[in-house]
Amino acid sequence: MMLEVAGLDKDFTSGAGRLAVLRGIDLQIAAGEFVAIMGASGSGKSTLLGLMAGLDAPTRGSIRIEGEEITRLSEDAMAELRGRKIGYVFQSFQLLPTLNAEENVLLPFELAGGGAEGRERARALLHAVGLSARGEHYPVQLSGGEQQRVALARAFMPRPPLILADEPTGNLDSANGQQVLELLLDLNRQQGATLVLVTHDPLLARHAGRIITLVDGRIA
What we know:
By secondary structure, the chain is of the alpha/beta class. About 35% of the residues lie in helices and about 30% in strands.
């Protein structure tokens, strides 16, 4: 199994009291699988994806990536694991404005201590997403669709076995959204990575091998 989640709960505390966002989540995702997570707004989709990425800690439960329990890792150890095993695609792109497209793609490779071959790979990935001529452009000079394609290339840069994507087409028009989806699927097939994608779009989810639906923080 690439990803194993058992007995996962997540609570948030505010002035209004304790809010249970996820309750008793159990799921297994095999290596190479493409899984879509769906549900209404507030159902816990993005919270679940963030927990899988180690961006937040669960209230209770276990998360294993390739058999390694991640909920007990220190922040440094979790960051190191993310660098090796997880590519994350944000809905809002999350590109660094002071870096050009090529530098944004190259960033996770450099943070992981990669060598000189990284720049060649970054350029190859930009070519794969149709942005060979835009490598020296900064995010402000790119359209939303182009920024999301840079974000896809960045996610695949370290060849992670697991790709987590949070509404990767949510901020795009239908044409750009379809193009980004096709690129995501092409890169997934080429590299054999496991793909877990959060979406509210049934047209996007139908490309998945399996759909997991959340209702009020539970798997329906």
